[in-house]
Design a protein that fits this description.
Helix content: 25-40%
Distance between the termini: 35 Å
Number of strands: 14
Strand content: 25-35%
Order of helices and strands: EHEHEHEHHEEEHHEEEHHEEEE
Length: 336
């Protein structure tokens, strides 16, 4: 079977509460203007981007992919890359044009929201090998697994994500909806008793309000839940918020956006390669990854170091201290 030099462009028209469907003709025109040779496929249902990516790579040999949509679209494309069997995951180059609600992965790498600028960065093809997380979870009494590229949320984080995703399904989602649910959900949510084991050592056995595990810094449309995260250090960052009062949460929402909330006494942070979480009762804590609601506890997270090749901005990597940015052949002197 032959490989193809074309790009596969996976488009989620429902991303950004329908903004992607509206803007896709403009994005397509800009891609053509920049000289991209591509095949575009629009998703029709949840998890469709996984199938598209897996099948197009296996059957037609695509090794260059652009995800057009939000963090959930990127998550599905990454899962498709891991499900295909034709190439090593690091032999596939993945770019992103962000047209989502949260755009938190793009925020990590200072990716521009202006389509023309994003496309020019993708054309440069400067790539970076980022870690990927894998989580095993329970869904309707069956064991499932999922890869994620940004962050997983549990407890209150997953509760708010689930409420927001229900609104998205009705075409009513958005950043404002998330913030409203973040406050109003406090009156419905109950804390959960958790045992959290990091690299074979139990670090928490307590009532937990919310927690995050991930590779990048942001989720929820700009909340800096993992402010010390480094995306290629081979470690998860973990933030645990123990039981706290509703008033204290409301008064400190601003601290979620600058990362300073981790200095509060009810917040603990950890780093590790493997995290195991059990809850009492057994299935009482829910899970979201990259903004997509999945299932419930028990949960087991493992890190896959430098497992996906992403197109990023050179200047965004300086704060990580990484020297592993790889330029496109014969493009070393181009600036972004």
């Amino acid at each position: 079977m032959k490989e193809t030099d074309k790009w596969l462009v996976v488009v989620n028209p429902r991303a950004g509460s329908g903004k992607c469907e509206k803007d896709w003709p403009k994005v397509k025109e800009l891609l053509l203007k920049q000289g991209f040779s591509f095949l575009s496929v629009l998703t029709e249902r949840p998890f469709h981007a996984i199938e598209i990516t897996r099948n197009m790579v296996n059957d037609l040999g695509f090794r260059k992919i652009i995800a057009v949509g939000g963090d959930g679209t990127l998550n599905e494309v990454v899962n498709g890359i891991f499900q295909q069997s034709r190439f090593a995951t690091t032999d596939i180059t993945l770019g992103m044009i962000t047209i989502g609600t949260g755009n938190d992965w793009g925020r990590m790498y200072s990716f521009p929201l202006k389509y023309e600028k994003a496309i020019k960065i993708i054309k440069n093809e400067r790539t970076f090998l980022q870690d990927v997380g894998k989580v095993k979870y329970s869904y309707e009494a069956e064991d499932k697994s999922r890869y994620f590229i940004n962050m997983a949320g549990m407890g209150y984080d997953a509760f708010v994500a689930k409420k927001t995703n229900r609104l998205k399904e009705q075409g009513k989602g958005g950043k404002l909806s998330y913030l409203i649910n973040l406050v109003l959900g406090l009156f419905q949510y109950e804390v959960v008793q958790l045992s959290i084991i990091v690299d074979d050592q139990e670090v928490v056995n307590d009532q937990v309000f919310s927690m995050s595990i991930g590779i990048c810094k942001f989720n929820g449309g700009g909340m800096k839940q993992l402010p010390a995260a480094i995306p290629d250090d081979g470690l998860f960052d973990v933030t645990v918020i123990r039981k706290t009062t509703k008033l204290r949460v409301v008064l400190n929402i601003k601290k979620l956006f600058d990362g300073s909330f981790i200095q509060m006494p009810e917040v603990d942070t950890f780093k590790g390669k493997k995290i195991v979480i059990t809850s009492t009762p057994r299935h009482s804590i829910f899970l979201e990854t990259d903004g997509e609601s999945l299932g419930s506890s028990p949960l087991e997270f493992t890190i896959v170091p430098r497992a996906v090749r992403l197109i990023v901005r050179k200047k965004a990597l300086k704060e990580f201290g990484s020297d592993q940015l790889m330029p496109k052949p014969q493009e070393e002197t181009r600036q972004d």
